[in-house]
Design a protein that fits this description.
Elements lengths: L2 H21 L9 H6 L3 H29 L4 H23 L3 H25 L4
Helix pairs in contact: 1-3, 1-4, 3-4, 3-5, 4-5
Length: 129
Amino acid sequence: MTAAFWCVFIVGIMPYIVVGIAKADKRYDNRTPRDWLATREGAKKRAHAAHLNSFEAFPFFLAGVIIAHLTEAPVHSVNAIAIAFVLVRIAYVWCYVGNHASMRSLIWLVGFGLTVALFIVSGLHAGLK
């Protein structure tokens, strides 16, 4: 299994790890978790938003990695982009929870660009210049 596929696994479980930040509270109510999360404020609320954004980012990244493998794009390039994406997503969550809005937006853009890069590497390798 390539490093990029391991990155897909990491990015796939990231939303569940991030929501743990939002739910880390002695008063957490598991009977109605969505209602409880909707009442959070500050870092807990931002962690929940980062959790939702992690789900939003996952499908595009997943498609990029799969397509890169299907087109037999250079594995070292795909792995490097995927690892960079994971690191950027970790930084994104840190910025979101820490309320660094401008930096968060910039980091989100970098992550989006990395996902686009997976498709570009695939297209270049497949001869779709």
